[in-house]
Amino acid sequence: MTTTDLPLLVLGTGADPDSERGVECPGGLPASSDPDLVERARKAKEALGDQLFVLGHHYQRNEVIAFADVTGDSFKLAKEAAARPEAPYIVFCGVHFMAESADILTADDQQVILPDLAAGCSMADMARLQQVEDAWDVLTDAGVADVTVPVTYMNSSADIKAFCGRNGGAVCTSSNAERALSWAFEQGTKVLFLPDQHLGRNTAVQMGLGLDDCVVFDPHRPGGGLTSEQLADATMILWRGHCSVHGRFAAESVDDIRARVPGVQVLVHPECKHEVVTKADLVGSTEFIIQTVEAAPAGSAWAIGTELNLVQRLAQDHPDKSISFLDKTVCFCSTMNRIDLPHFVWALENLVDGNVVNRIQVDPETERWAKLALQRMLDLPGESHKD
Ligand code: 13P
Ligand code: SF4
């Protein structure tokens, strides 16, 4: 089986970003049927020259990735944006929290643009500031807040990152979660891990903690659905959030592909459920997945559990290897797919005309604390040596 054999579903992410963020495109979007879209994108990019820097997350569509000056995971892209102080316009082809992180890490006179404001992330939307502040009150009442360090995954809004910064915590990504947690356990005895319970649990177990050291805090239940004793006994307090795409990979799919493809190696993102990660051969971020496939010998067989745009591109780029998508019932991240060529062309042509559309701008107070939490991540041992 290859990715091209798969019936494709468009997976809803559970969020309703249109209702929460303006999605109008003043001046009108070019039609997706416009045969000149590629040429229009090329011309607008050429006209903007060094004024423009285009970042593309690995989950973006091919039509958009074709115009990216650099591709990467969310962490690499934020650092790439920060390393381009000469570009006044950063067009971020990814989702909202990534564009926010780029805005936080770039200079004040640089403008970060998200071609479609409806490109959110359902996981990031699962932790709202008020909910997290209420949870912190629950931890305070249980007498554990002062020994708890909040750590948030990059996939969270700027105000959640700021909450972590204000409360002695940090940001982490899927590539440095273990180092971030080791740092956190030097600052306190417990971690409140936001918003992805799966990355939190998978990392905790990888570090030698047991599943019973983890509890799940449900923001929709009084007291998080936990007693003060449970909070006192837990080492990891996991927020009840998940990725609507990665959460759908099933453990049975790993058994299934092993039965069908002899010698296959299963490679998954740590946003997958613990039972999937336990059955996989290798686990890591999007950058790790790409590097692993690139380094693999010709003829090797891989089943990959991450977003479909990336898996399809890996299959196209490595025809000498057998690359399968791990689970037929999982599909594209619908919010990542919001960034398409019409939105890209619309954003660039507006820039050519002197109009900055869809600017993502974090307010100064939020930025100050979120930057502190991001800086604690950048200061983790070994981080400065990575790209
Ligand atoms: P990476 O940081 O590994 O690129 O993951 C981002 C993401 O959204 C995964 O779902
Ligand atoms: Fe968010 Fe999941 Fe999409 Fe990543 S794949 S942007 S975590 S919904």
Low-confidence stretches: 1-21
CATH fold topology of the largest domain: Rossmann fold
Characterize the biggest β-sheet. Answer: 5 strands, mixed
What general outline do the C-alpha atoms trace? Answer: globular
The pLDDT mean sits at: 92
In total, the number of strands is 16
Output the strand order for the largest sheet: 3-2-4-5-16
Provide the structure class. Answer: alpha/beta
How much beta, percentage-wise?
15-25%
Which CATH-level-2 architecture of the largest domain? 3-Layer(aba) Sandwich
Give the fraction of residues assigned to helices: 40-55%
Number of domains: 3
In whole angstroms, the N-to-C terminal distance is: 34 Å
The CATH first-level class of the largest domain comes to Alpha Beta
Radius of gyration computed on alpha carbons: 21 Å
The tally of helices reads: 17
Query: What are the distinct ligands in this entry?
Result: 1,3-dihydroxyacetonephosphate, iron/sulfur cluster
